[in-house]
């Protein structure tokens, strides 16, 4: 009898979770969700006290290394209750900057924080690299378990990367790599994959000098209330803005210009309550790529990317406009992209969801609304469940809503889908879409519960995928 009672208890516990999934039936539902979410995402407040880095010995000549001056100013500001650490006009060379709680790093108009090209200036910290946990170089600006932190002002953050510094480590000749120079990430990348598969403790996966895993630019890790506004970010070693396992992330009016390898613009990983608005992307990879960890690490932590708003952004250049994946093993839900504009000769897809059966996870409730696209090469909407090697964790993609999409000059397809027969893309809705200039209206395999209303491709109505 006890065995049956336990069975029914487990059944009852599981019912609410399975009942949570309800596909939208109109755009008004996600629009209301967006309004409610905006009220939850707020800017941190800071004490009205300034700490000028030049008062701590900083010299803005572009040559003097100011790592200690930044450290002292930030620690003083933090210890006294917070405020602004102010970077005045000038070019201030520095190594890694660690942001502490209640500190707003204010980069004044006319100022540049120029980051060192010497890897010795970046201590080994607990981080993520391509969705895998490890000990590696600190990001250029880093925080761990901090609260109320910000980077603001109309100045410049210059990662100082080029084909002779950081970029060639990717191993591609177009970024300066050749057999005669040391530095290639491929062996270390493979080793990190092995460590993850073996479930080696993350703090024992030690990299750094001699391994050539490039650091990201800005990475608050397990932090709350992160705000960023107005700065120009350029020349990153790798991903540009990469909050990991953070909550309440608000970014506005940021400009990212960075054309190195893997120079994604904004890669929030396993974060909750994220809002990026009125920002500009001119990047060497995806403009926005939402993530939640790779394979064993993503599934082990089990934190989805949750409640993200991408609003009124311009994707000037980049491979993907709004991308979910591929490091998405923790899943993603409630992703809202509204009022964005994208147009680039390098743009492959406007909306892309990429995952694989080595990832698993559920990607659901994606709202792509009021989007204007100039040109793209492959597809306006792309679903891919076969992005990397297969595994034993079949992913789920469901409740994807695309409305008010206009494309001036499409690429090969309007819609492209590559899914599993056992896990079709489910509840895909496209309403009021006008897509011109495509070669082939669609190429899809396994889709279920598709709704197409007023979808015009090359001047002709598209009513189904048959």
Characterization of this structure:
The protein has 466 residues and is mainly beta. The protein has a domain of 202 residues: Pectate Lyase C-like (3 Solenoid). Helix content is 14%, strand content 41%. It is built from 5 helices and 34 strands. The protein has a 23-stranded mixed sheet that branches. It has a 6-stranded parallel sheet with strand order 20-23-26-28-30-32, with no helix packed on it. It has a 3-stranded parallel sheet with strand order 5-10-13. A hairpin with a 2-residue loop joins β33 and β34. The termini are far apart.
Write the SSE topology:
Blueprint (H helix, E strand, L loop, with lengths): L1 H18 L8 H13 L9 E3 L8 E5 L1 H13 L3 E5 L2 E5 L2 E2 L4 E5 L3 E5 L8 E6 L2 E6 L3 E4 L2 E6 L3 E3 L27 H13 L19 E4 L2 E6 L2 E3 L12 E6 L2 E4 L13 E6 L2 E4 L4 E3 L4 H7 L3 E7 L2 E4 L2 E5 L7 E7 L2 E2 L6 E6 L7 E14 L3 E6 L11 E14 L3 E6 L6 E11 L4 E4 L3 E11 L2 E2 L5
Parallel strand pairs: 1-3, 2-4, 3-6, 4-7, 5-10, 6-11, 7-12, 10-13, 11-14, 12-15, 14-16, 15-17, 16-18, 17-19, 18-21, 19-22, 20-23, 21-24, 22-25, 23-26, 24-27, 25-27, 26-28, 27-29, 28-30, 29-31, 30-32, 31-33
Antiparallel strand pairs: 8-9, 33-34
What tags apply to this protein structure?
single chain, 466 residues, mainly beta, Pectate Lyase C-like, 23-stranded mixed β-sheet, 6-stranded parallel β-sheet, globular, disordered N terminus
Strand content: 35-45%
Q: State the CATH class of the domain at 264-465.
A: Mainly Beta
Distance N to C terminus: 52 Å
Major β-sheet, in short?
23 strands, mixed
How helix-rich are the residues, as a percent range?
A: 10-25%
Pfam families: Glyco_hydro_28, Pect-lyase_RHGA_epim
InterPro entries: GH28_Enzymes, Glyco_hydro_28, PbH1, Pectin_lyas_fold, Pectin_lyase_fold/virulence, RHGA/B-epi-like_pectate_lyase
Protein name: Pectate lyase superfamily protein
GO molecular function: lyase activity; polygalacturonase activity
């Amino acid at each position: 009898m006890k065995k049956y009672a336990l069975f029914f208890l487990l059944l009852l516990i599981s019912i609410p979770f399975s009942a949570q999934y309800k596909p939208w039936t109109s755009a008004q539902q996600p629009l209301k969700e967006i309004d409610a979410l905006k009220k939850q995402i707020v800017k941190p407040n800071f004490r009205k006290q300034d700490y000028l880095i030049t008062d701590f010995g900083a010299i803005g000549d572009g040559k003097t290394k100011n790592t200690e001056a930044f450290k002292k100013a930030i620690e003083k500001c933090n210890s006294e209750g917070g405020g602004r650490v102010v970077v005045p006009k000038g070019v201030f060379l520095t190594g890694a900057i660690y942001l502490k709680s209640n500190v707003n790093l204010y980069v004044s108009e006319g100022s540049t924080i120029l980051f060192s090209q010497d890897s010795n200036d970046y201590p080994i910290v607990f981080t993520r690299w391509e969705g895998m946990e490890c000990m590696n170089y600190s990001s250029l600006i880093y925080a761990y378990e901090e609260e109320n932190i910000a980077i603001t002002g109309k100045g410049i953050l210059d990662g100082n990367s080029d084909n002779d510094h950081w970029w060639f480590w990717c191993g591609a000749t177009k970024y300066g790599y050749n057999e005669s120079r040391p530095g290639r990430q491929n062996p270390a990348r493979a080793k990190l994959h092995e460590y993850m598969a073996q479930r080696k403790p993350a703090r024992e996966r030690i990299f750094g000098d001699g391994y050539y895993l490039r650091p990201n630019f800005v990475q608050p890790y397990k932090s709350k209330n992160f705000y960023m506004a107005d700065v120009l970010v350029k020349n990153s070693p790798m991903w540009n803005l990469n909050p990991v396992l953070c909550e309440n992330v608000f970014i506005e009016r940021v400009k990212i210009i960075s054309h190195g390898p893997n120079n994604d613009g904004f890669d929030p990983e396993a974060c909750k309550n994220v809002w990026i608005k009125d920002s500009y992307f001119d990047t060497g990879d995806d403009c926005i790529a939402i993530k939640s960890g790779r394979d064993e690490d993503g599934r082990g932590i089990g934190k989805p990317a949750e409640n993200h708003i991408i609003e009124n952004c311009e994707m000037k250049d980049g491979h993907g406009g709004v991308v979910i994946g591929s490091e998405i093993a923790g899943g993603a839900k409630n992703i809202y992209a509204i009022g964005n504009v994208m147009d680039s000769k390098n743009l492959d897809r406007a909306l892309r969801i990429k995952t694989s059966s080595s990832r698993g996870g559920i990607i659901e409730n994606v709202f792509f609304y009021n989007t204007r696209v100039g040109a793209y090469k492959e597809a306006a909407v792309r679903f891919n469940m076969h992005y990397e090697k297969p595994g034993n964790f079949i992913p789920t993609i469901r409740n994807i809503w695309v409305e008010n999409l206009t494309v001036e000059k499409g690429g090969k397809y309007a819609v492209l889908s590559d899914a599993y027969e056992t896990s079709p893309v489910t509840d895909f809705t496209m309403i009021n879409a006008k897509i011109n200039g495509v070669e082939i209206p669609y190429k899809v395999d396994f889709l279920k519960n598709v709704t197409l209303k007023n979808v015009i491709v090359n001047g002709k109505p598209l009513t189904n995928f048959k």
